[in-house]
Design a protein that fits this description.
Nucleotidyltransferase, domain 5, 367 residues, 14 helices, binds 5'-O-[(R)-(carboxyoxy)(hydroxy)phosphoryl]adenosine, binds zinc ion, 2 domains, alpha/beta
Length: 367
């Protein structure tokens, strides 16, 4: 079947067509219009500006997705749209557009939780993702993740360990008590004057200067909050505050490129240490067949590699699954894929034809 996926929960306007059946899940088009340039002036996403930009771009983005896939509206069997969580003005553009199209084109419509989308980015089964993942040092990639699956979700708004015993079944076994990991990256980038979005900027500097001598020169040691706690919860605001205090002690350091490098390196290492420690402990307790990485921070190369190595060392019988880089950050192919699995499980498909009326955007939608 052919599915149109639509995503507007934050600062990317995205539309995608996928073709899915029991064997293959192939992305036919994946169009993402980013608003980074618009929001970087403000140091973060401004909800009303985001909505205005989504409104301007949503129809051209959908049209391009159809053209790239060489399909037209008659070919579409299902529309899947992110209906939460996220910024409500932004979500409303995607859901309203999806509802209007579902009504005029007479298509069934499914609302998808944004994090469910990130998780299902790992279920795309096309050759391209298999090839581009293989260039990295990642052991045990399995194109068909096996259940039970332990998901490490790391995005700008979420940090969670989720146990999936089967498709669409989620048990949150731990989560952040304050900042999400992507949020911490963004805040640290702001403190260090590295702009928005901060994650890629911090990661780039940390990876460029990964020589121990630079870190030693400044003797920066950041905390690893809750690393020793017996539960699977996280806390990242303390690491960010430690960066802030260190910088405040000597503002001159902000002019020193080596200091910034050392700080980025130690921050990234501290965050990854905590994430991996908790994920491995959870794997030892719950014994999943697969550990899966999801969310925008899964684009972090060090995290992808280090988690893979930690799995091989500590729980060697567990498979490891990461999304292709182009499906790590916000996109709509992942929403369409989640839509496919929800469609398959749905026993009352007629109901979905009425969703153009009843679907609602919910800024704090629960998984
Ligand atoms: O999933 P996502 O695209 O949007 C949300 O659902 O929040 O994640 C965005 C987050 C941002 O905080 C961004 O700074 C972070 O992911 N991020 C990264 C990297 N690329 C994006 N963090 C660390 N390293 C990266 N390479
Ligand atoms: Zn996201």
């Amino acid at each position: 079947m052919i599915i149109l996926g639509i995503e507007t929960s934050c600062d990317e306007t995205a539309a995608s067509l996928i073709e899915a059946d029991d064997k293959n899940i192939i992305v036919l088009s994946n169009i993402v219009s980013s608003q980074i340039a618009l929001h970087s002036k403000w140091g973060g996403v401004v909800p009303n500006l985001a909505a205005r930009e989504h409104l301007k771009n949503i129809l051209p983005v959908i049209e391009t997705a159809l053209e790239k896939a060489e399909k037209n509206s008659a070919d579409i069997d299902l529309i899947a749209v992110t209906n939460g969580p996220g910024l409500i003005p932004a979500l409303l553009i995607g859901t309203t557009t999806a509802k209007a199209l579902a009504y005029f084109w007479k298509k069934p419509l499914i609302g998808i939780h944004h994090i469910e989308g990130h998780i299902y980015a790992n279920f795309i089964r096309d050759e391209i993702s298999a090839i581009s993942n293989s260039q990295f040092l990642i052991p045990k990639q399995n194109p068909n993740p096996k259940f039970p699956i332990l998901c490490l979700v790391v995005s700008g708004g979420h940090t969670q360990l989720i146990l999936m015993r089967e498709h669409l079944d989620y048990e949150i076994i731990g989560e952040t008590l304050d900042d999400a990991v992507g949020e911490a990256f963004d805040k640290v980038a702001r403190i260090l004057g590295l702009g928005y979005p901060g994650g890629p900027a911090v990661a780039k500097i940390a990876d460029e200067f990964s020589s121990a001598t630079i870190a030693d020169e400044f003797k920066i040691t950041l905390p690893r909050p809750m690393i020793k706690s017996a539960n699977f919860d996280f806390s990242f605001s303390g690491i960010k505050t430690a960066v802030l205090y260190a910088v405040k002690k000597n503002q001159e350091n902000l002019k020193n490129k080596n200091y910034i490098s050392a700080m980025c390196q130690e921050f990234q290492t501290a965050v990854i240490d905590v994430l991996i420690h908790k994920a491995i402990n959870a794997a030892k307790k719950y014994q999943p067949k697969t550990i899966l990485l999801a969310g925008g921070v899964s684009a972090n190369q060090k995290l992808r590699e280090q988690l893979g190595l930690a799995i091989e060392k500590n729980v060697p019988n567990t498979n490891y699954k990461i999304p292709d880089i182009k499906y790590s950050l916000d996109n709509s192919a992942m929403i369409a894929v989640a839509g496919y699995f929800r469609w398959k499980k749905n026993k009352n498909k007629k109901e979905l034809e009425k969703n153009w009326q009843s679907l609602e955007a919910d800024a704090s939608l629960k998984l």
